[in-house]
Design a protein that fits this description.
The protein is 73% helix and 0% strand. Helix 4 packs antiparallel against helix 10. The protein is flat and about 70 Å long. The chain is mostly helical and 280 residues long. The two termini are 31 Å apart. It has a domain at 66-235: MetI-like (MetI-like fold, Orthogonal Bundle).
Length: 280
């Protein structure tokens, strides 16, 4: 009887802590959404409010009244993020599969090289990258923000670590005996096994690509190619008055796709965690 009571108390404590942490996580996003409905004066007088105001349409008008088009920036960000995420996921998974499924002489050396590249910040290589892009006349091209995602050392490392205990080489060998080609084995057998890892990395890659400000700011000078982060950063540069309401509206529109991607892929992550718990 006493043990049952202790278990109930423990469950209540766990639920209370989980609810508190969930509320703590949601609170910043809710404040951002609420500020998107408030005027600049209201935000300056009372920085934090949990009650929406009535200035949402006015903030949208201010946002749409700028020299750039937020809809164009939104589409550019979607194209870059989806393209970069797709390329990074496929080629990183393919590289990780080659690292796990094949025994070749320089395999360990290649993996060590990947680890070294992981340690180099992207900002260090930006000058050389910009010079190369400028010489081949590819500035102001969205493709130059997508194609470099093919080489993603961090994702290769994560995929390799996931595949090593998960991939059964007996399945691969059986498929080869049945006459399946290597790309068919990878696309039909390996990729479905990697769904939880792919979903996890898809979220991280999409968020990183969507929020990337530094690289597009260096490569893009044409307003028609601007991404949402660039446009939101330009909202802070008004000469006479900073419209904080429109800035929060731009931030809300910027964050919205990230929520959608997370909710679409979260079930695969949960399934992967549950599968790992069963295996353990």
């Amino acid at each position: 009887m006493l043990k049952n009571k202790e278990n109930r108390i423990m469950k209540v404590v766990i639920y209370v802590v989980c609810i508190f942490l969930a509320a703590l996580s949601i609170l910043p996003f809710w404040i951002m959404i609420v500020n998107a409905t408030r005027s600049t004066t209201e935000i300056q007088q009372h920085a934090i409010s949990l009650i929406p105001s009535s200035y949402m349409m006015n903030n949208i008008k201010i946002l749409l009244g700028k020299s750039f088009n937020p809809a164009v920036g939104f589409m550019n960000s979607i194209i870059i993020s989806v393209g970069a995420t797709g390329l990074a996921l496929y080629f990183s998974s393919l590289t990780a599969y080659a690292q796990v499924a094949y025994n070749w002489r320089l395999r360990n050396v290649f993996f060590s090289f990947i680890m070294v590249v992981m340690m180099i910040p992207a900002q260090v290589t930006m000058i050389g990258f910009y010079q190369m892009v400028y010489k081949i006349h590819m500035t102001n091209r969205l493709s130059m923000l997508i194609l470099p995602a093919i080489a993603s050392p961090t994702m290769v490392f994560f995929m390799r670590q996931y595949l090593q205990p998960t991939l059964s080489m007996e399945i691969v060998q059986s498929a080869r005996i049945d006459g399946a080609k290597e790309f068919m084995i990878f696309n039909r057998i390996v990729l479905p096994i990697m769904k939880p890892a792919i979903a996890t990395q898809a979220i991280f890659s999409f968020v990183a690509s969507w929020n990337n400000l530094f690289t597009p700011l260096v490569l893009l000078t044409d307003q028609k190619k601007y991404t949402m982060p660039i446009m939101v950063s330009l909202l802070k540069g008004d000469i006479y008055k900073t419209e904080y309401g429109s800035i929060y509206m731009g931030l809300t529109l910027t964050v919205l796709p990230l929520f959608i991607v997370y909710f679409l892929l979260s079930k695969y992550i949960i399934a992967g965690v549950a599968l790992g718990g069963v295996k353990g």
